[in-house]
């Protein structure tokens, strides 16, 4: 297992799988070990995936200073990782909460980003959160599912702050609630670092006006991919986030939830590779 050392001396691990040009991958959670990403639905057959375990997660060491879990402070880890890999320009893919880290990195180091793929990433860094209303509206799209009647009240209570997270509503995060989805969901607790997650969005992590201004000038092409059934973010929020970038396209994967590579691996891989394999940036695609 390869490692590198962050600027504060924390040893960080990453995992390599697949063949082809490198694609650096940031996990979500926030602060979930990269193992949950698997091979991204078979994307490793087309690109060499290099998946980072953020500090305090997976095989990476915990830092001496817990405040360094804050999203903006993790940007330094990504930059050291890029340099360690010997890449002047890199293709970067980020999932979910990792998308805000990727946005902050691209804002600070635009010269090192060749292409940026943001997968079901709520744009917290742009001050564009997924609201409880967004999540409930998406949840109601599933009212014909056999598990909906038991799941919806618990989900509603959790979003209102009157109930705890309950596995009964995990199906809302997946486009298909089948055996692979159940297995994937069951691993969530052991793959997540709760202390780190609590600090990821700590006060001061984001400066949305500055980030918006920087990303408006980002020359790299950007793909923002939403799941049709995902509530965080919903497709409309992803389309609005795409408008922040100079050269971005929004895509909506039919029937997908928050983990689109599980719901329809072929569609996901085809769409992401089509974006990554473009050899020259084009003009901005309307969403």
N-to-C CA distance: 40 Å
Strand content: 15-25%
Strand order of the largest sheet: 1-2-4-3-5-6-7-8
**Tally the helices: what do you get?**
11
Give the integer mean of the pLDDT values.
Answer: 95
By helix and strand content, what is the structural category?
Answer: alpha/beta
Folded structure, characterized:
The structure is a single chain. Helix content is 35%, strand content 16%. It contains eleven helices and eight strands. The protein has helices at residues 71-85, 98-108, 132-140, 148-160, 179-186, 188-191, 194-200, 208-216, 235-242, 260-263, 265-276, and strands at 3-5, 11-17, 22-26, 48-52, 90-95, 113-119, 222-227, 248-253. Strand 7 (222-227), helix 9 and strand 8 form a beta-alpha-beta unit. Helix 1 (71-85) crosses helix 2 (98-108) and helix 3 (132-140) runs antiparallel to helix 4 (148-160). The protein is globular, with a radius of gyration of 18 Å. The model is unreliable at 280-287 (pLDDT under 50).
In short:
The chain is α/β, with parallel strands linked by helices. It has helices spanning 71-85, 98-108, 132-140, 148-160, 179-186, 188-191, 194-200, 208-216, 235-242, 260-263, 265-276, and strands at residues 3-5, 11-17, 22-26, 48-52, 90-95, 113-119, 222-227, 248-253.
What brief labels describe this structure?
single chain, 287 residues, alpha/beta, Rossmann fold, eight-stranded mixed β-sheet, 8 strands, globular
Which helices and strands appear, and what pairs or packs with what?
Blueprint: E1 3-5, E2 11-17, E3 22-26, E4 48-52, H1 71-85, E5 90-95, H2 98-108, E6 113-119, H3 132-140, H4 148-160, H5 179-186, H6 188-191, H7 194-200, H8 208-216, E7 222-227, H9 235-242, E8 248-253, H10 260-263, H11 265-276
């Amino acid at each position: 297992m390869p490692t590198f050392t962050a600027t504060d001396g924390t040893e960080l691990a990453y995992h390599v799988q697949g063949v082809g040009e490198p694609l650096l991958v940031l996990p979500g959670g926030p602060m979930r070990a990269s193992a949950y990403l698997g091979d991204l639905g078979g994307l490793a057959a087309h690109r060499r995936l290099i998946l980072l375990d953020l500090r305090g997660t997976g095989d990476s060491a915990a830092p001496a200073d817990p405040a360094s879990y804050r999203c903006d402070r993790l940007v330094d880890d990504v930059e050291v990782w890029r340099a360690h890999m010997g890449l002047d320009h890199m293709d970067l893919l980020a999932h979910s909460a990792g998308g805000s880290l990727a946005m902050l990195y691209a804002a600070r180091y635009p010269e090192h980003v060749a292409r940026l793929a943001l997968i079901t990433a709520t744009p917290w860094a742009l001050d564009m959160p997924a609201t409880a209303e967004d999540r409930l509206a998406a949840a109601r799209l599933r009212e014909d599912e056999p598990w909906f009647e038991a799941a919806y009240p618990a989900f509603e209570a959790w979003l209102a702050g009157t109930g705890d997270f309950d596995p009964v509503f995990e199906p809302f995060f997946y486009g298909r609630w089948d055996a692979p989805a159940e297995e994937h969901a069951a691993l969530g607790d052991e793959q997540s670092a709760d202390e780190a997650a609590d600090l990821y969005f700590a006060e001061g992590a984001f400066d949305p006006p500055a980030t918006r201004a920087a990303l408006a000038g980002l020359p790299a092409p950007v793909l923002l991919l939403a799941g049709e059934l995902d509530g965080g973010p919903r497709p409309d929020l992803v389309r609005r986030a795409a408008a922040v970038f100079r050269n971005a396209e929004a895509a909506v994967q039919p029937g997908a939830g928050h983990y689109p590579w599980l719901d329809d691996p072929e569609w996901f891989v085809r769409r992401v590779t089509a974006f990554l394999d473009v050899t020259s940036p084009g003009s901005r695609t309307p969403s």
